[in-house]
Amino acid sequence: MSARFSAVLLAAGRGTRLHTQVPKAYIELCGKPLLCYSLERFSECDQIAQIVVVLHRDDRERCERCVEETSKRVELVYGGEHRQDSALAGVRAAHEEYVLVHDAARPLVSPELIERVLEATLRHGAAVPALPVTDSLKRVREGQIVENVDRIELVRVQTPQGFRRELILRALQRACAERRYFTDESGAVLALLGVQAKIVPGDEFNLKITTSADLELARRWLSRGERRRPRC
């Protein structure tokens, strides 16, 4: 695999549902800020030539401490009001032909998952990791079940999501210009450009830290050695 990628790490979120005074990307997990885990993982990947960290303006000092020992070239850019604004800022700062966009709140991303997304992005121009939905799904209105939802064609998408830079840049620029906000990058690419991302197998360990329960689960996994600790 000779192509080179930029990795965009989204770390500007506040993490209000965690009810801590520390912004989410800098909450410690087994002694290290969440952001450090993603920095380590993407730094280990030979195909990643550049890492862009998208941060909040108030977090510059925290972020600089995290990236100071990172082996890859790292650029810091400020995010915007919405996640999508931050993703656009990060993609604009990316220099390589292909881009991976990853939530820093997913600290346990594995090298194998990154590799799957890289390979599928090169083949298809857009790739997203996803997991099947295993629970029964219902549509609820005013506290009552009103409809059964067929889960056969439904998946739970994760990050990193991979794209040709030109493709994701065009989609995010148009989405922000039209004030249409999507919860992930593949949603913008599909809705605005009609491009269907290739699905690759996701990873149950690649959880997104949203609540204190998620943080405790990640701690337990790390303490049992189910995800090795990075050297950040």
Describe the structure.
With 232 residues, the chain is an alpha/beta fold. The chain has one domain: Spore Coat Polysaccharide Biosynthesis Protein SpsA, Chain A. Helix content is 33%, strand content 26%. It is built from 7 helices and 12 strands. It has helices spanning 34-43, 60-67, 83-93, 111-124, 165-177, 185-193, 212-223, and strands at residues 5-11, 28-29, 32-33, 48-55, 73-78, 98-103, 126-132, 137-141, 144-149, 155-157, 161-164, 198-201. The strands form 3 sheets. Strands 1, 4, 5, 6, 7, 10, 11 and 12 form an 8-stranded mixed β-sheet that branches. A two-stranded antiparallel sheet has the order 2-3. Strand 4 (48-55), helix 2 and strand 5 (73-78) form a beta-alpha-beta unit. Helix 3 packs antiparallel against helix 5 and helix 5 packs across helix 6 (185-193). The model has no long low-confidence stretch (mean pLDDT 93).
Blueprint (SSEs and pairs):
Blueprint: E1 5-11, E2 28-29, E3 32-33, H1 34-43, E4 48-55, H2 60-67, E5 73-78, H3 83-93, E6 98-103, H4 111-124, E7 126-132, E8 137-141, E9 144-149, E10 155-157, E11 161-164, H5 165-177, H6 185-193, E12 198-201, H7 212-223
Query: Got a strand count?
Result: 12
CATH architecture label name: Alpha-Beta Complex
CATH topology: Spore Coat Polysaccharide Biosynthesis Protein SpsA, Chain A
Look at the structure and give the CATH class: Alpha Beta
Query: What low-confidence regions span 5 or more consecutive residues with pLDDT below 50?
Result: none
Question: Looking at the structure, what is the overall shape?
Answer: globular
Separation of termini?
26 Å
Main structural class = alpha/beta
State the helix count. 7
Mean pLDDT: 93
Please estimate the helix content: 25-40%
- Rg over C-alpha atoms, rounded to the nearest angstrom: 17 Å
**Which series of helices and strands comes N to C?**
EEEHEHEHEHEEEEEHHEH
Largest sheet data: 8 strands, mixed
DSSP strand content: 25-35%
Count of domains = 1
Please, what is the CATH homologous superfamily? Spore Coat Polysaccharide Biosynthesis Protein SpsA, Chain A
